[in-house]
Design brief:
It is globular and about 60 Å long. It has one domain. α3 runs antiparallel to α4, α5 packs across α6 and α8 packs antiparallel against α17. It is an all-alpha fold and 417 residues long. The chain is built from 18 helices and no strands.
C-alpha cells in the first residue's frame, strides 16, 4: 500500500501544485456556472491535467482499484446503446450516451482527487459552504426583485437550461422558479439543505452564522418552490436543531435565537404582502396542482412502475446504455443505464457509511439522497460534484482516523520490543 503523509512540507512544489488545483476546482464547483457552450464544469481541464499527470498518487485510495472494473462496465454499457431495446419512454442517442460516460468518469476522477487531497493535507473547507449558501441566496434575492433581468442573464450564462427556455417560450404560465446557475429548481432545493447542514454540523461555534445560514437556506428553498426540497429541509435542519449539539451553546444560544426570531418577525410584518403573493403564485399553486391531479408524488410512482415494466433481466449486469426508462428515480436510472454492479459502486462512493464517522454527521447527505431518489439529480453536474466533495471529505477523514490508529498500534509494538 502507498502511504500518504498527512503533514506535508507546505513549501514543496507538489503541495503548491495540488493546492492551486484544489482551490481552482473548489471555487468552480461552488461558485461558477457550467461552461456555456458545453455543459461541463469549467475546472474540468484543470482536473484532467492533474489526473493525467498525477493520478497515480490516488492508487492507495480504496475506490481506485474497483473503479477500473466499473469504468470497463460503463464503457461496455455505452456501446450497448447501439442495440435496439424496443419501445422506450425517451430515446438516448449514442452521442448522449458517450457524454454521460465521460461525465460520470470524470466525476469519479473528482472523487479520487478530493479524497487524496483531504487525506494528504486535511484542509478545512466548511467556511466555503457558508459562503456558498450566502452566494446562492444573493442571486435568489436578485431573482426575487428583478426576475425579468435575472431570466435574461440566466439564458446567457446557461443557454442549455430547459426551465429558462420553457419560460421564455411562454410554456410556464408566468411561474419561473429559481434555479440558480443550474438547470433544475428541485436540484437546488435538495442540495441547499445539504450544503447548509454540512456547515452547521462541522462548524463547532459561531451560532449567529449558523442561524444566518438557516434563514438564507429557507429563503432559497421558497424561491425554488420545491415542495420536496422544503419538506426535506424542514426535517433535516429541524432534526439538527433538536437532536444534535449544533445549535446548543450555554452562553449565547437562547439570545441569538431570540434575536433571529425578532428579526424574522419584523421582516414578515414589513414585507408580508410581498411574501404572501410570492407563496400564493409559487409554492401554494404547485401544491394545489398536485392536489387537483390527485397525485401527491408528481407522477413518480407511475414513473417507477413504467421503468420496471420496460426493464430486462440483462440490465442487472450491464444495463442498456439508455436513459429512457425513468425520468425521476436515480436508482433505476443507474441500473438501467449501467447495471447493478455500477449502481452499487456509485452508492458506496456517494452515500456509503465510513467507519469512524458518526451517523449524525451524515445528515447533510440525506437531502442529496432524496434528490437522487426523487429527481435523479446526479445528471446535474454541480449537484453531483458537491455531493462528491462532501462524500470524499468524510471518506478521507475515515482513512486518516484508521491511519492514526495504525500508527499508534505500530508505535506501541515498537516500544514494547
Amino acid at each position: 500500500m502507498v502511504e500518504v503523509n498527512s503533514l506535508p512540507i507546505k513549501t514543496t512544489k507538489t503541495y503548491k501544485q495540488d493546492r492551486i488545483c484544489f482551490y481552482i476546482i473548489l471555487f468552480d464547483i461552488l461558485f461558477m456556472p457550467l461552461f456555456p457552450l458545453v455543459s461541463v464544469s469549467m475546472s474540468l481541464p484543470v482536473l484532467a491535467y492533474w489526473y493525467l499527470t498525477q493520478g497515480s498518487k490516488t492508487r492507495f485510495v480504496k475506490e481506485y482499484s474497483l473503479m477500473r472494473f466499473v469504468v470497463l462496465i460503463m464503457a461496455f454499457s455505452t456501446l450497448l446503446n447501439l442495440l435496439d431495446w424496443g419501445a422506450l419512454r425517451g430515446e438516448t442517442s449514442f452521442a448522449t450516451s458517450i457524454k454521460r460516460f465521460f461525465q460520470f468518469l470524470t466525476s469519479l476522477w473528482y472523487f479520487l482527487f478530493f479524497k487524496y487531497y483531504f487525506i494528504k493535507y486535511n484542509d478545512d473547507i466548511k467556511k466555503y459552504f457558508l459562503w456558498e449558501v450566502a452566494y446562492i441566496a444573493f442571486f435568489a434575492l436578485l431573482y426575487l426583485l428583478f426576475q425579468d433581468q435575472f431570466v435574461h442573464y440566466k439564458s446567457i450564462i446557461n443557454p442549455a437550461d430547459p426551465h429558462t427556455k420553457r419560460y421564455l417560450a411562454g410554456e410556464l404560465y408566468g411561474i419561473y422558479r429559481y434555479t440558480y446557475f443550474w438547470a433544475d429548481a428541485n436540484n437546488v432545493g435538495y442540495a441547499i439543505s445539504g450544503i447548509a447542514l454540512f456547515y452547521i454540523l462541522e462548524q463547532k461555534d459561531n451560532l449567529f452564522l449558523k442561524y444566518l445560514s438557516v434563514v438564507l437556506t429557507f429563503f432559497i428553498l421558497f424561491c425554488t418552490m420545491s415542495i420536496g426540497g422544503i419538506g426535506v429541509g424542514i426535517v433535516v435542519i429541524g432534526y439538527s436543531f433538536f437532536f444534535t449539539n449544533a445549535f446548543k451553546n450555554k452562553n449565547s444560544g437562547i439570545i441569538v435565537l431570540l434575536l433571529f426570531i425578532i428579526a424574522i418577525a419584523y421582516f414578515i410584518s414589513r414585507y408580508g404582502g410581498v411574501i404572501e403573493e410570492f407563496i400564493n403564485t409559487g409554492v401554494e399553486s404547485r401544491v394545489e396542482k398536485y392536489s387537483e391531479s390527485g397525485n401527491a408524488t408528481g407522477g413518480r410512482l407511475e414513473d417507477i412502475k413504467a421503468a420496471f415494466s420496460l426493464m430486462s433481466p440483462f440490465f442487472i449486469l450491464f444495463g442498456s446504455g439508455h436513459e429512457g426508462y425513468t425520468t425521476e428515480n436515480g436508482h433505476l436510472y443507474l441500473i438501467c443505464l449501467y447495471g447493478l454492479p455500477v449502481y452499487l459502486y456509485f452508492m458506496f462512493v456517494l452515500f456509503g457509511k465510513r467507519k469512524g464517522i458518526t451517523w449524525k454527521r451524515y445528515l447533510p447527505l440525506i437531502p442529496f439522497f432524496v434528490g437522487f431518489t426523487m429527481n435523479i439529480a446526479i445528471i446535474d453536474q454541480k449537484f453531483l460534484l458537491i455531493l462528491i466533495l462532501i462524500s470524499a471529505y468524510y471518506s478521507a477523514e475515515s482513512y486518516r482516523r484508521k491511519q492514526i490508529k495504525r500508527d499508534i498500534v505500530e508505535t506501541g509494538i515498537n516500544n514494547n520490543s
